[in-house]
Amino acid sequence: MRLDRRSLTLLCGIWLAWAAILIGFQNLVEARMEPKRPDYALAWTPRETGRTSQNDKPYLIEPFMNRHVSWDSEFYLSIAIAGYDDPRVRLVQLPGRQPLSMNYAFFPLYPAVMRIVSLPLRVLDLNEIATATLAGVLVALVGTLGGMIALYDLVRDELGEDGGIRIAFYLLIFPSSFFLAQVYSEGLFVALAFGSMALAARQRLVWAALLAALAVWVRSTGVLLLIPLTLAWLGQVRGRRIARRELIYAGAVLLPALAFAAWWFVLGDQFHLVEDHWFGRSLTDWERTRQGWKAAFDSLRSAETVAQMRVYYGLEFSALGLAILACLLTVRRYPGPALFGLAVLAVTALSGAPQSLIRYVLVVPSVFILPARLGRSVVFDRAWTTANLLLLGLLVTLFTFDMWVA
């Protein structure tokens, strides 16, 4: 990647201001208001969003930076501190097998990095949960900066320096972008995935493949980075004789597949069992997926559905529709990122009930590429910014109070 010093300074300044404002807002909103509980966004959320619903989850009740942990944060903290078989985490009862910790539904690299970053933070003399929480937020934030730089580089040839700054800003204000400053793996994943695609576009295939392999150990969809890597390799060898160097690059392109195979050999069986039996997600259970989508659409049509559920599904479906449209409209200029995005969306939409879509589309580059193009219009830029910031404020407020967002 080639970075203009002025643009890099601007990106760092915007990132630092965003992080400070977002963290400050989460403190402010908690001090100023208290939502009415429970949350009726989904059929199961009322029993998980009461005033005492977190009391049986020791990793989610530590006061230090508590606004930045909820839902999946429990498992990342647990793995970082105690490993996968942590007795403090709930077990999934499996027919004919020993129970498995819910931790097995989560990938190892993000908590591993959290554990490493926690080591120097011990000088702060915090307890282990507080230390891991701080480490998790720092890893997410630094990863977010890496994702911003990668997006900037990805579009700079087309949109120039201003367009590169704009796309990075649009990443930060997307309604679910607050996950990039919580104990969640999205920040690290966008750094690795977007970085891999930016390097592939520059024909730096070995480094791109290494980042892609690491991304696989953060989220399963990292293996889909094979798509932009393969397209970049094909573009490199098109119309000429394949030499030894191209064969080496071809081997490098396979690194994400090898990383996925290694993870599957060690943890894949446990992952599949917990995902299937507890979280209800599986690419092979088409009937359950069909029923989940049918129930979601029935909820939207039913006159008895509460407004909270309507809004939740409205945002989920809008995010998915935006992401699909953005991929289709950018596939000609950015085939690798767009096809990667479509593959991610297919896995997301076809592996269970439609939940967390607005968070999953955060890793689809076209969601930011298309608005960055349209943002050359001042009117669109101001309107897009306003709409995103208002929705971001709503969703981060809900998350701060442990309500269900995605």
Question: How would you characterize this protein structure?
Answer:
By secondary structure, the chain is mostly helical. It has one domain (5-400). The protein is 65% helix and 1% strand. The chain has 15 helices and two strands. It has helices at residues 5-32, 73-82, 109-121, 128-173, 186-201, 205-216, 226-237, 244-253, 255-279, 286-301, 307-330, 335-349, 357-360, 366-374, 378-400; strands at residues 91-92, 100-101. The protein has a two-stranded antiparallel ribbon. Strand 1 and strand 2 form a beta hairpin. Helix 3 packs across helix 4 and helix 4 packs across helix 5.
Topology:
Elements: H1 5-32, H2 73-82, E1 91-92, E2 100-101, H3 109-121, H4 128-173, H5 186-201, H6 205-216, H7 226-237, H8 244-253, H9 255-279, H10 286-301, H11 307-330, H12 335-349, H13 357-360, H14 366-374, H15 378-400
Antiparallel strand pairs: 1-2
Helix pairs in contact: 1-4, 2-3, 2-4, 3-4, 4-5, 4-14, 5-6, 5-7, 6-7, 6-9, 7-8, 7-12, 10-11, 11-12, 11-14
Produce a short descriptive summary.
With 406 residues, the chain is an all-alpha fold. 65% of the residues lie in helices and 1% in strands. The chain has 15 helices and two strands.
